[in-house]
Write a structure and sequence with these properties.
48% of the residues lie in helices and 22% in strands. The strands form four sheets. It has a three-stranded antiparallel beta sheet, with no helix packed on it. A three-stranded antiparallel beta sheet has the order 6-5-8. Strands 9-10-11 form a three-stranded antiparallel beta sheet. α6 crosses α8 and α9 crosses α10. The termini are far apart.
Length: 320
């Protein structure tokens, strides 16, 4: 029995392959539809419905715009022609190097992606466009009151750097990508810091920044937004906690100073003991030390009168 479809036995075609074929060729010339199983074979068959080039061109323009759309399209072209060259003022638009224009025709997204940079054309009364800035934007995250894992309340603020990497997705997938990114950054800051201790927040800022950047980048990817960098600016502690930490640090430093002084006294006493043992072995060494001490005193205090007393005289008194 004759059929309007061309039967062919093939493998299922993925949507990604169809999209790649449509992008490379400008229009897709066939639509794959599953057919019923054949009586002569158990293999799966597919019916390829060959579409016309007009249907493919209609899909490139954002889909079927309907009869009214085609009438409006014809009237717009007619008005552009009869008012030429004055109509160029409404048809020609320019976007800067750092901008892209997302065009909608009768509410449908025009195929081909965002336009720009440079000159592009629109059809008045049918097309509307939105400019998207692709430059990197920075904003300050308002100070967030965060309760850490060890039950300490701190106020933390940060700065976020991001840019729009897909202008079409930033317009069609989210109402306001800038506002949404700001709100998400504040929420992510609270969520990430809530899992950290106070000591980790104060000492591991770089790790926290990288964790926030990866979380934000993953969440904003469907919006066409790329988060480039996140930096934690300041961590403000309550005044009472600052005083307690200062007192603890001062006590720790005093205890450490006392330990160091005691260790120094211990080492000095050992050195003096060894010096006394050396001097006791030679009586002349004690006399030389006595003369050295006199020399030091005479150099520092010139007004002091010193009467040298021989050490040997002391031995006689000590024996008695």
């Amino acid at each position: 029995m004759a059929s309007n479809y061309v039967k062919m036995e093939t493998q299922p075609v993925r949507r990604e392959d169809q999209a790649a074929k449509a992008t490379s060729s400008g229009y897709y010339s066939g639509q794959v539809e599953p057919a019923s199983r054949s009586h002569s074979s158990d293999a799966m068959h597919f019916d390829v419905v060959v579409k016309s080039k007009d249907d493919a061109m209609r899909r490139d323009d954002g889909g079927d715009i309907g009869c009214c759309g085609y009438v409006l399209y014809a009237l717009s072209i007619f008005m552009i022609v009869i008012t030429f060259p004055f109509s160029l003022c409404l048809c020609m638009k320019v976007v800067q190097e750092y901008e892209r224009a997302v065009i909608f025709r009768l509410g449908r997204l025009v195929a081909g992606g965002a336009k720009g940079p440079g000159l592009f054309f629109i059809i008045p009364c049918m097309d509307s466009y939105t400019k998207v800035d692709l430059r990197t934007v920075s904003f300050d995250v308002p100070p967030q009151e965060v309760l850490t894992r060890d039950s300490v309340t701190v106020a933390v603020d940060a700065v976020v750097y991001y840019r729009v990497q897909n202008a079409t997705m930033s317009i069609t997938n989210v109402e306001d990508s800038n506002r949404s990114t700001r709100l998400l950054a504040a929420t992510t800051l609270r969520n990430v810091l809530g899992t950290k201790n106070l000591a980790e927040i104060l000492s591991e800022r770089e790790t926290i920044s990288h964790l926030m950047q990866s979380s934000l980048d993953e969440a904003t990817d469907p919006w066409g937004v790329k988060v480039e960098r996140v930096e934690v600016k300041d961590v403000r502690l309550p005044v009472q906690l600052q005083r307690a930490m200062a007192a603890e640090a001062e006590a720790t430093r005093e205890a450490r100073a006392k330990v160091i002084a005691a260790e120094g006294e211990q080492k000095a006493s050992r050195a003096l003991k060894e010096a006394a043992d050396v001097i006791s072995e030679s009586p002349a060494a004690l006399q030389l030390r006595y003369l050295q001490t006199l020399n030091t005193i005479s150099a520092e205090k010139n007004s002091t009168i010193i009467f040298p007393l021989p050490i040997d005289l002391l031995h006689s008194f000590l024996k008695k």
